[in-house]
Amino acid sequence: MGQKSSIEWTESTWNPVTGCSKISAGCLNCYAERMAKRLQAMGQANYANGFHVTLHEHLIELPLHWRKPQTIFVNSMSDLFHEDVPIDFIKHVFNVMEKASWHHFQILTKRSARLVELAGKLPWPENVWMGVTVENEESVFRIKHLRSIPAAVRFLSVEPLIGPITGINLSGINWVIVGGESGPGARPMKSEWVFEIKEHCQNANVPFFFKQWGGFNKKRNGRTLEGKVYNEMPEKYQSPELSLAF
């Protein structure tokens, strides 16, 4: 079994890369940076460099040893398409995902330009889902980049949603996750921003997953929207644990 995750839309995490650097407004209160510094202080060997980009060759083939099929979020503590991650390392990660065909892998990036640049040099097996983060109107350009990627599932992580996104174009998109920012200094998310995206998803017949309202106390604020929990998943994949909508 992989590293079990508390992230609502996945089951496990795999971090062959750790560390990152801020690239846009959504990065301001990065949860991964806080966690990396905490793990460094605890003496965790993989975080000896804190939040500086670090490649972990010894972890690349880990999913091949996890026999139970699972949904795996790749690099929850980094960005695989960060400019400091060499193309050969990225290719190795993709080759492992292709070999570990019994798993589903979810990759998320804010560096969509580099994703487009490298996409033609990478294999895109059915079990690899590719997503981009879209936190406000200024980052909508990443969706256009994502549309050109030959992934079986293309998804958006609209989290942290820190501003309105009007008229979002969901053509070629298979799944949308929306969530508010959580933790210290969390910026508020307005309900009308969420409802507009949800309406676009319904009109485009795109599965909608509402992760959380966020805030400093995210558990107290919960994840119900109009009295309902939205756990919709892409049609290509329905997990008993992840596909329930109440």
Task: Give an overview in words.
The protein has 246 residues and is of the alpha/beta class. It has a single domain (3-14, 61-229), classed as pyruvate-formate lyase- activating enzyme. The protein is built from six helices and twelve strands. It has helices at residues 31-41, 87-99, 112-119, 141-147, 191-204, 218-221; strands at residues 3-4, 12-14, 17-18, 54-55, 71-74, 104-109, 128-133, 153-158, 175-179, 208-212, 224-225, 228-229. The protein has an eight-stranded mixed β-sheet. Strands 3-4 form a two-stranded antiparallel sheet. Helix 3 links the parallel strand 6 and strand 7 (128-133). The longest helix has 14 residues, at 191-204. The chain is globular, with a radius of gyration of 17 Å. The protein starts with a strand and ends in a 17-residue tail after the last strand.
